[in-house]
Write a structure and sequence with these properties.
CATH topology of the largest domain: Rossmann fold
Structural class: alpha/beta
Radius of gyration: 20 Å
Number of domains: 2
Strand content: 15-25%
Number of strands: 9
Order of helices and strands: EHHHHHHHEHEHHEHEEHEEE
Oligomer: single chain
Shape: elongated
Mean pLDDT: 90
Helix content: 40-55%
Low-confidence stretches: 1-5, 239-245, 252-264
Largest sheet: 6 strands, parallel
Distance between the termini: 36 Å
Number of helices: 12
CATH class of the largest domain: Alpha Beta
């Protein structure tokens, strides 16, 4: 029996940032305002070099946050201090202004256009849907509230609340317990190869879907799609090619045009 024929799918776990929500998009929209706020304190700041340093030090500091070695404010301040070190120290006034602008990254966060329709389609088919996200509870809960996504989910798993973060097997095991299903009847959908795809494969999930616009082969045992609207067909929940039309997930039929595949 292979991975994809194990048992009937009964639960699907979705990542949140850059899977259901357009986290990269909101960061790109807010970033010019972040640089402008910093330049008021540091007029000679090289914006391009600063961005390179800021992105380059992300993982090391985020791992400290995930291990509980710092809180979210500490993570932000430490990361900013490393990134801006060639030009300035991080004083309280600079950090306050930086924090005020960065709040928009959460306040302006929006779901991908096909997120709600995809989740509703899964649930209409009798499949339980969960969200598994890394991050501090207060931060991630605020994102859920801003986007209104929690009403479309059966369960929510946040790493700080679970006591484990992706890609650790314990995070996926805790999510399966919340969903009430086993790994051989569950699917994982996410954009991160390391956290979502490799983590779910190692945890034994029957189906693993990597969302990526890159023309790259997914790891063995996983499938790649370009967007959330393609997920139902890949998982065998609905037939044909899916698309979003007027906020509704539809099946594209060569002869009949588009046919709704989500029950309202």
């Amino acid at each position: 029996m292979n991975r994809h024929q194990a048992r009937r799918l009964s639960g699907v776990v979705f990542d949140f940032d850059d899977t259901l929500a357009d986290s990269t998009g909101v960061h790109e929209r807010v970033w010019p305002a972040v640089v402008a706020a910093l330049c008021r304190h540091v007029p000679d700041l090289d914006a391009a070099a600063f961005l390179e340093r800021y992105e380059g030090c992300m993982e090391a500091h985020y791992e400290r946050l995930m291990r509980g070695e710092t809180d979210f404010a500490g993570f932000r301040r430490e990361r900013l201090a490393v990134a801006i070190a060639p030009w300035a120290d991080v004083g309280d006034d600079l950090f306050r202004d930086y924090q005020a602008v960065k709040a928009r990254v959460i306040d302006d966060l929006r779901l991908h256009a096909d997120a709600v329709a995809t989740l509703r389609h899964m649930r209409a088919a009798g499949i339980r849907v969960g969200l598994l996200t890394n991050g501090p509870s207060e931060l991630q809960r605020r994102k859920l509230a801003v986007t209104g996504i929690e009403a479309e989910l059966d369960v929510v798993g946040i790493s700080e609340e679970l006591g484990a973060h992706k890609p650790a097997a314990a995070a996926f095991e805790a999510m399966l317990e919340l969903l009430g299903c086993s790994a051989d009847e569950a699917a994982m959908v996410g954009d991160s190869l390391a956290n979502d795809v490799d983590g779910a494969l190692a945890a034994g999930f029957a189906r693993v879907v990597w969302i990526s616009s890159a023309e790259a082969e997914p790891p063995a045992g996983a499938q790649r799609v370009r967007c959330l609207a393609e997920v139902p067909a890949v998982l065998g929940v609905g037939m044909g090619t899916a698309a979003i039309q007027d906020g509704q997930l539809v099946e594209v039929d060569g002869d009949a045009g588009t046919v709704p595949i989500i029950a309202e």
